[in-house]
Amino acid sequence: MCNPPFYESSASLLASAAGKSRPPNSACTGAEIEMVTPGGEVAFVTRMIEESCELKERVQWYTSMLGKLSSVVEVVEKLKKKRLQNWAVTTFVQGERTRRWAVGWSWGSLRPSVEVARGISALSKVLLPFPSEFSFSIADASIDNVATCIDKILRALDLQWQFRPAVSAGVGLANENVWSRTARRQKRKVQTDVALKSGQNAMDEESEDDKEPVFGFKVQVRGSQNGGAGVLIRWLRGHESMLFESFCGMLRRQILEALPNKTSE
To answer: CA 99 from chain center: how many Å?
Structure first.
């Protein structure tokens, strides 16, 4: 967690101060050594990024405040060049006029909520992280019916799934894409191959439980504004956005197939 020196030189510090009109109690009292660094805040945070490339998941999240929105753009672009896929941006509003911004990034797989990760509306969409939520509604359907349908669909898949009927919500983990047609065909082939092998050879096969989950999710069913049932899918864990998109599309499609005469919005 960092509040870096904002300015690249004493001249830029003085120019910034001269251009602001503010009461004495809000005047900056930081010493020059605290406020100025070669290259300014972008260079300072760039060094943090380079250090994070070495430390990786020894630190769960790296965060820094920034004094300029343009610096957020530069920092995010540097993160993307490092092929990092898990970052967050937000705005701090101090009083009526003062604004600061923050960027956070992680080499881990835990995904923050949309509210946390996409907190700068003025930022270009290409600089915002991939949305970790997908929602849709089923018209004229009850919450219980949709929740039961989702539970049945996910229990049929080769993944870990825990459902709580009392709150119409559940969480799940998958070791790989187990819902696509290709994945189902591949699994049947593997099962056939294993069945043909004798005792010890079959035991040598890698257990699915030994694999590291690559995708974690939460599904919540609640009332929607149109009087039907709303479905919210939260991406909790993973690096591959295409896996999340594929899962959301599969679940929405199978719900509609299982509930005849229902439409989705």
So the answer is: 24
